[in-house]
Design brief:
Number of strands: 10
Number of domains: 1
Bound molecules: iron/sulfur cluster
Largest sheet: 4 strands, parallel
Structural class: alpha/beta
CATH class: Alpha Beta
Radius of gyration: 20 Å
């Protein structure tokens, strides 16, 4: 690819014109610094100010019991396993109180696919949380959990979502997307929602007025083209619904999983895919960097590769920690990393509106 082609790409990105498949494919051949430059054009087109946002929240994994048996997961335990758990409502309440005490505004509530929990359980749990802590934003479940509830209750996805919204669901995290290509899903997570089901839940949620995020876990068995297929599917749905607030790519953490023999994707691959995501997803406003999987220094670098959000303070994080990766940051440390990288830290809500400190 010559300088002239890069110039053309630059102009297209500056104008907010979506890249077609062939142009997107050429991105994988560009030197990493050129990719960073292109990604930053898109970033500053969407966010002209040098602000990097973050959220103070806590991941609460209400259960680790799961019947999906995804090969990339180090977190789950099979039903009847001696290490399996289900948090009580009071244990969840205690974690929410600790979050509020630290200035937290939302909780991210997610678990495994636990066959003992039905739709009524979640209605009771959400109602309990909202009655006791009406100020808390409930960012909960993921498309595979919602598909499971639809199948187990015999109700449509719309019906399940409406009942959960009525009970207090505010938004849905984009977990369980991995790579939205069924060749990959059949190998990694054959018992989990298909790519079509994942996209369907998000589409219905957006149409019911919920905002959601989208994620991508890469660095395992996917090809470059499958990464692009994932990005194009997200971009196309966003064109229809405008319901995604952010895109969050992160790398597979092999330790303690059934795929522990796979090499771990390095920082350069992470930055390459992050930049390509920013360039291809011209219609997704925010790209989150992953200090939890990459460490804070690579996350700082990722702010030069299209990222404009530092994610969450993660008062608690269990899923990545199960794969032997454990970075911890307080809010002050997180703000210091953002400042040190040359940006202004701003605390935000789930919908990315800024909370002035
Ligand atoms: S990734 Fe989620 S659905 Fe898959 S095994 Fe782990 S907890 Fe279960």
């Amino acid at each position: 690819m010559g300088n002239r082609d890069v110039k053309l790409l630059e102009e297209q990105i500056r104008e907010g014109i979506p890249l077609d498949w062939e142009s997107a494919k050429t991105l994988f051949k560009l030197p990493i610094h050129t990719l960073g430059k292109l990604a930053q054009i898109q970033r500053y087109r969407l966010h002209p100010e040098k602000i990097v946002t973050y959220v103070v929240d806590r991941n609460i994994n209400y259960t680790n019991i799961c019947i999906s048996y995804c090969k990339f997961c180090a977190f789950y335990r099979a039903p009847n396993s001696k290490d399996g758990y289900l948090l009580s409502f009071e244990e969840i309440a205690k974690k929410i109180e600790e979050t509020i005490a630290l200035g937290g505004y939302q909780i991210l509530l997610q678990g495994g696919i636990n066959p003992d929990l039905d739709l009524e359980y979640f209605e009771r749990l959400f109602t309990f949380i909202k009655n006791r802590y009406p100020q808390i934003h409930l960012h909960a479940l993921s498309p595979p959990e919602i598909i499971y509830l639809s199948k187990s209750s015999g109700l449509s996805v719309d019906e399940v979502l409406k009942r959960l919204i009525k009970a207090g669901l505010d938004s849905i995290p984009g977990g369980g997307a991995e790579i939205l290509v069924d060749r990959v899903r059949k190998i990694l997570s054959p018992n989990k929602a298909t790519s079509e089901e994942w996209l369907y839940v998000m589409e219905r949620a957006h149409l019911l007025g919920l905002k959601t995020t989208a994620t991508m876990m890469f660095g395992h068995i996917e090809t470059d083209e499958e990464i692009l297929e994932h990005l194009f599917k997200i971009r196309n749905l966003q064109e229809k619904t405008k319901g995604f607030t952010a895109f969050i790519p992160w790398t597979f953490q092999p330790k303690n999983t059934a795929l522990s023999h796979l090499p771990k994707a390095g920082a350069v691959r992470y930055l390459q895919v992050l930049a390509i995501s920013r360039i291809v997803l011209h219609n997704i406003p925010n790209i989150q960097v992953s200090w939890v999987t990459q460490g804070p220094q690579v996350a700082q670098l990722a702010l030069e590769f299209g990222g404009n959000d530092f994610g969450s303070t993660m008062i608690e994080e269990n899923v990545v920690a199960s794969a032997g990766v454990s970075h911890r940051l307080s809010e002050e440390e997180l703000r210091a990393y953002i400042r040190e990288a040359g940006y202004i830290p701003k605390r935000r809500k789930m919908d990315y509106t800024i909370i002035e400190n």
